[in-house]
Amino acid sequence: MELGLRMGLGDPPADYGSIAAVGLFVALICVCIIVGHLLEESRWMNESITALIIGLGTGGVILMVSGWKHSRILVFSEDLFFIYLLPPIIFNAGFQVKKKQFFRNFMTITLFGAVGTLISFTVISLGALGLISRLNIGSLELGDYLAIGAIFSATDSVCTLQVLNQDDTPLLYSLVFGEGVVNDATSVVLFNAIQNFDLPNFSSIKFLQFIGNFLYLFGTSTFLGVGAGLLSAYIIKKLYFGRHSTDREVSIMMLMAYLSYMLAELLDLSGILTVFFCGIVMSHYTWHNVTESSRVTTKHAFATLSFISETFLFLYVGMDALDIEKWKIVGETYRHALSVSVCKVTTYVVQLPIGTQLSGV
Length: 361
Prior knowledge:
This protein is an all-alpha fold. The chain has helices spanning 2-7, 16-38, 47-65, 78-96, 99-104, 106-131, 142-152, 157-162, 170-195, 204-239, 246-266, 271-284, 292-320, 324-333, 336-360. The chain is built from 15 helices and no strands.
């Protein structure tokens, strides 16, 4: 109370810049929701495209107002994405996924996610070695080309799933999303193996070690997610929070899911795999042990958090596309024509394995 009296009700906030940035993004998300609702029946526009266009327009306005210095007012950090925005998106996808369709096609999903990722990695690495090496952009070692292959073979299914409807195309949706989840584990193991890559000492033992690391990462991450989901179901069933407050039931579900993701990251596992399987287990066991009001609340709360996170990401991508600072760095480092050539070559090489995988679907 004494601290509150000292500060006073009329004292100015500590950082107006941060408040203005957050306020602008909240306002833009509201605009995206309204415009997306008005364009609900459009065949050519959806909420993600709407957010991208609004982000581009806002970035252009900020760019002109700032005197062509920058197009964003909020610095996007890696922690913001991996700690706050990604977990609700992946968890809700696991919570809402059609489980029968997913597990019925689990072998196909694993084939696309593991073997398909290795094919993408091989094609992209060889393509980068053969094409980028001719552009004279600097001396790159074999490990650099392999790292390029590992990075670009890690596909992000979040944007793709935005244009798919789980009810209209359940098979395609489960294959695309499942491939993205398994692809994450494969890409993590690939990149970590490349970091310790030693070509002169490469042997069959190293290859078997790579396979073992992948199985360990996949199995341990899945086990952690399943364990967190079962533990939440056991706690809610035994303690029966609903007799006193539904808020506690909802809080336990949210916090246990988030805790599983953070534990996976702390243990250098795949947080995406963990929180995805945690969502599947919670929707199958925990969700049926809570009260009826908590079922409705959790279903809409998880979907709302995921929706806001996705809209924020697309907004920022639209604004960041016009970031003049990044373009200046590219222009100062390489010739403009050379930079465009690198982008074209990389895009072409990446599209080859992706097109091959999609043709199989």
